[in-house]
Amino acid sequence: MAFITANWNPLGDTFYRSAELYEMFWSLRDGLGDSLVAAAPYGGPIALLREPLRRSPSTRPQLEIYSASGASIASFPWKSGPVVHLGWSVNDELLCVQEDGTVLIYDLFGSFKRHFSMGQEVVQSQVLEAKVFHSPYGTGVAIVTGSSRFTLATNIEDLKLRRLPEVPGLQGQPSCWAVLTQDRQTKVLVSSGPELYVLDNTSCTAVYPPGLSPQAGSIVHMSVSFSYKYLALFTETGRLWTGLSNLQERLSEMDTKQAATPKQMVWCRRPRSQQPSVVLMWDRLLLVVGSCNDTIQFPLEDQSVLVGELDGVRIIGSISQELLQEVPLVCQDIFKIASMAPGALLLEAHREYEKSSQKADEYLREIKEQNVLGDAVRQCVEAAAHEYDPDTQKALMRAASFGKCFLTEFSPDQFVTTCRELRVLNAVRESSVGMPLTHTQFKQMTLQVLIDRLVYRQFYPLAIEVCRYLKIPDYQGVSRVLKHWASCKVQQKDLTDEAIARAVCAKVGDSPGVSYSDVAAKAYECGRPELAIKLLDFEARSGEQVPLLLKMKRSQLALSKAVESGDTDLVYTVVTYLKNEMNRGDFFMTLRNQPVALSLYRQFCKLQEPQTLKDLFNQDDDHQELGNFYVTSSYRDKRLEGRLAQLQSAVDEYNKAKNDFAAKATEEEMRLLRFQRKLDDEKGAGLLGLSLQATMEALMSLGLHKQAEQLYRDFRVPDKRYWWLKLTSLAEKEQWEELEKFSKSKKSPIGYLAFVEVCMKNNNRHEAKKYVSKVTPEQKVKAHLAVGDLEGAADAAIERRNESEMGAVLSRCSASDRLLMDKLNRARVATAKK
């Protein structure tokens, strides 16, 4: 703790520090010389291509991918064309830009993903220089060709090439250029001799940096800050100009006293930076130039690479890696010599407390007297977040915890959150993981992206531990990690299908948010269909199983799964797919093995494809259903001959099915149709298509009683039905004399109460009374009541000595029927005594 400020270097009013991140794992025999090197920001991986322009087929360049700590991730010989530039996308994909304008994209593990071209005209003119940049639209690529033309793609995921206007007088490669992103527009800043131009989609505009001295000479190097807000220009006379990237304001200009063009120039600043600076690197010198015109010099022992970060610069060497950054203000306040800031006093108080010294009380009293104890705790927590060394973090957090004990109303949220975040950051900063994230970078990239990166690099146990430690919901955390793990597991070629399926099931189990069908789909993509089927057996949702099985051409299994699910829509989906994919015979045979599917398909055919339904029945020799089909079809035929032919076919099929009842009923239907046709021709009755009962009703309503009686005899219509039909028909036509004759023709099978009720229904009390005397004794009371004869009903009820009938008559009596009511009451009493 006493030497925390030992590596601080003053720059104007602030300090810069250099912290060692790693001793690199790699062993580079020739260092980083004669190599293309690309390191991704936010502690990303490092790609290294040795001798990129080597063209000998016998000794190909080697492309190597390392973690930020130098641990090897992938390595393979480069078999494509000469590479001009390497860069990383926002998704940690490696972009290799070739001389012919082809951009090849590899994943973190060296697997080829895809490629695209920067334009056909580039093949002839060749790429002289390229840059990979990040914009609000995603990852972009910019190139300059041998014809001195710039081509731009702002988003490689949605490729749209833009050829920028020509630069006046530019021949060959420009002395330097940079990509700018301003107001969601991507532009190119180009230096051509003493001139400076801004290229956009439509124009080339000459610009001049404000305040740049005329003696500065041509601009030979330029650099844009991480946020694209600031610009640095280095001239041939060694002068460095800094200002806003829109070239509206100058920050500073100074003479670096270095005539040689720097190998790299990178901005070093942090959010809310007090003293932004530019880091320039030559072979053996690293120069930090602040906007205050002060400088810091660091000697370099070997060749290095600078990587601009959100809050500093990573310096990658062949032996070690360091982070150069401005010391955060809160850290300066606490650790500066003789600092009296609240955080510094609290840290000192805790030190004395651990020594059991009474000075701790004096420091605390001083803080309390100034009423800044809360500020002191917050300062210690904030400073701990910015420190890279775990021991320094612990000292600050313990001091903050010590100070919290003396506060009654202090929210612990910031303290708890910072503790958790620091534990996560310390875990990912380990050399074995190799992600040297600062707290500022972590907050910018978000926890979700950090987990994605751990998963992408296959640090699954660590990713799961982070998710559980930070209590991330399963569907966003553990389940997502397990899904990615399972998708990678199925690609392992050294394990059997059975072993992988068991391992995936044991690890994933019933984790919410993990779809076995997605994992199975990945297995199928990798050429392991049997493994995919085994994994689908663990999928609980049939709706997820079936589509993949169909894609795999496992139609029988897909149909079985669909039937097991009980989802008719899913069954219909599979059946429709099979119908389109298989020949007719195989399709029908497949359905025969699945009765549920066959039944559903028959329902479908009934509504949509009746002819197919007939073919199904024919193939199955199902004569009963064929007969039913012909009967149903006959109703759709408008011509009598066609209908009779269909019905005759139905009779034949019913006979084959030995269904005598159905055959006879169909034959009688045919007889009825012929009878109806005959009467239609003779009388124009319009009977065709009516049922037997409707035909008889129609005949009677037309007065064709003889023909109705003929049907009654020919079709053996039950007597009761015939009598009811004729009774109703005669009453409705008010043929009362015919009705009376009909009633006397023979004993009525439906009784005579029906005559009474039908007459009353047709409002003829006089006719109704004629039949009351013929009604059986049991129905006499109802008959008398139907015609409104209360006296007769009372006499009949008393004669039968039936209490319920007497009660029914009483209920119909009114106050004016007092004598009748007394008579009934006396009869009820007498009946009750007996």
UniProtKB/TrEMBL annotation:
What are the protein's GO molecular function terms? actin binding
How the protein sits in the membrane? Peripheral membrane protein
Q: Where in the cell is it found?
A: Late endosome membrane; Lysosome membrane
Keywords from the UniProt entry: Coiled coil, Endosome, Lysosome, Membrane, Protein transport, Transport
Q: Which SUPFAM superfamilies match?
A: WD40 repeat-like (SSF50978)
Domain Vps16 N-terminal: where? 5-416
Residues forming the Vps16 C-terminal domain are 514-827
Where, if anywhere, are coiled coils annotated?
637-664
Q: What processes in GO biological process is this protein linked to?
A: endosomal transport; intracellular protein transport; vacuole fusion, non-autophagic
One Gene Ontology term, aspect cellular component: CORVET complex
Q: Which domain of life is it from?
A: Eukaryota
Q: Which PANTHER family match?
A: VACUOLAR PROTEIN SORTING VPS16 (PTHR12811), VACUOLAR PROTEIN SORTING-ASSOCIATED PROTEIN 16 HOMOLOG (PTHR12811:SF0)
Subunit (UniProt)? Core component of at least two putative endosomal tethering complexes, the homotypic fusion and vacuole protein sorting (HOPS) complex and the class C core vacuole/endosome tethering (CORVET) complex. Their common core is composed of the class C Vps proteins VPS11, VPS16, VPS18 and VPS33A, which in HOPS further associates with VPS39 and VPS41 and in CORVET with VPS8 and TGFBRAP1. Interacts with RAB5C. Interacts with STX17, MON1B. Associates with adapter protein complex 3 (AP-3) and clathrin:AP-3 complexes.
Q: Which family does it belong to?
A: Belongs to the VPS16 family.
Cited function: Plays a role in vesicle-mediated protein trafficking to lysosomal compartments including the endocytic membrane transport and autophagic pathways. Believed to act as a core component of the putative HOPS and CORVET endosomal tethering complexes.
Protein name, as recorded: Vacuolar protein sorting-associated protein 16 homolog
Protein species of origin: Xiphophorus couchianus (Monterrey platyfish)
